[in-house]
Amino acid sequence: MTEPLQQLQQSLKGQGSLTRPRQVVFSALLGREPQTMAQLVAACASQIDRASVYRTIALFEKLGVVQRLQIGWKYKLELSDTFHHHHHHLTCLKCGRTTPLPEDKQLESRLQQLAKAQNFTMQGHQLEIQGLCRDCVRSR
Ligand SMILES: [Zn+2]
Ligand SMILES: [Zn+2]
């Protein structure tokens, strides 16, 4: 079993075994940029049905395997920081593409400081920059 799958099994704990739908959905998320539910359903369509994808995502969210990236009133899904390196995103408001930003240690520690100054212990955060990507700026 690959390492990510072992991690997944640990996260599932008392929630049953690594069933096929769980493996399929997990593989569809692994190493990918954030996807909408529709994209995810499409990616799994040849192997499991829509209802199974929804059910599995609901469980994954509850267990912290998956996190939502809120984009306006919509959202995309990606694996949580347990499964891939913590990062921030750029989202293009025109074409909807989401791309990762390179890690910035200064920004990370600044966020820690800001939270700490409010006597708040930060356990995680999400950060997303919204705007227009290069292609969309050009085609305007
Ligand atoms: Zn764009
Ligand atoms: Zn961060």
- Output the structural class: alpha+beta
H/E element sequence: HHHHEEEEHEH
How much is the average pLDDT?
91
Radius of gyration (CA) equals 17 Å
- Note the beta-strand portion: 15-25%
What is the molecular shape?
A: globular
Compute the number of helices. Answer: 6
Order of strands, main sheet, comes to: 4-3-5
Bound molecules: zinc ion
Approximate helicity band: 40-55%
Our measurement of the CA-to-CA distance between the termini, rounded to an integer number of angstroms, reads 48 Å
Task: List how many beta strands DSSP finds.
Answer: 5
Q: Spans with pLDDT under 50 lasting ≥5 residues?
A: none
Characterize the main sheet: 3 strands, mixed
Keywords:
140 residues; alpha+beta; 3-stranded mixed beta sheet; two-stranded antiparallel sheet; 6 helices; globular; binds zinc ion
Could you outline the blueprint of secondary structure elements for this entry?
Blueprint: H1 3-12, H2 20-29, H3 37-44, H4 50-62, E1 66-71, E2 74-79, E3 89-92, E4 98-100, H5 105-117, E5 128-131, H6 134-138
Describe the structure.
This protein is an alpha+beta fold and 140 residues long. It has six helices and five strands; from the N terminus they run H-H-H-H-E-E-E-E-H-E-H. A three-stranded mixed β-sheet has the order 4-3-5, with no helix packed on it. A two-stranded antiparallel sheet has the order 1-2. The mean pLDDT is 91. Bound molecules: zinc ion (ZN) (2 copies). One zinc ion binds next to loops.
